[in-house]
Amino acid sequence: MFPNLFQEVGDKVVPTVIDHLEVCKTIEEAIEILSFFERAGEINKEYVLFLKNNPSLLISMIGKRRRGEYEKRGLL
User: Fold this and answer.
1) Comparing C-alpha atoms, which of 4, 5, 3, 24 is closest to residue 14?
2) Residue 55, in any domain of the structure
3) Structural domain includes residue 19
4) DSSP secondary structure of 12-62
5) The domain containing residue 33 runs over which residues?
6) Does the CA dihedral 11-17-42-39 come out positive or negative?
7) Which residue of 3, 20, 51, 57 has the lowest C-beta tally within 10 Å?
């Protein structure tokens, strides 16, 4: 469907759900991100439930990076 996608992306890495969670400022924001990725089919329901049922793990991911740091780390 996208024959040149790898060449277009090049050496850059597409951000994962973890990258998006690290940018969140609140748990509510993180839960919204998890719901979005689940609806989009990027992550499975078991992973979402695991993160939602372990708030200490979810809190440890939140706020680790600021918006705009994707380019610095080579992410799209």
Assistant:
1) 5
2) yes
3) no
4) -B---HHHHHHH-SSHHHHHHHHHHHHHTTSS-HHHHHHHHH-HHHHHHHT
5) 27-62
6) negative
7) 3
The 3-state DSSP class for residue 64 equals coil
Over residues 35-46, the pLDDT tens digits come to 999 999 999 999
Question: Cα–Cα distance between 58 and 64 in angstroms, integer?
Answer: 11
Place of tokens 């979402």: 48
Coil/strand/helix, residue 44: coil
Residues 6+ apart with CB under 8 A from 66: 23
Q: Has residue 33 been placed in a domain?
A: yes
Q: Tell me, yes or no, if the pTM score tops 0.85.
A: no
Q: Two tokens at 19?
A: 């990258």
24: tokens are 């969140």
Read off the tokens for 34: 């998890």
pLDDT at 62 over 80: yes
Instruction: For residue 67, tell me if it sits in a domain.
Output: no
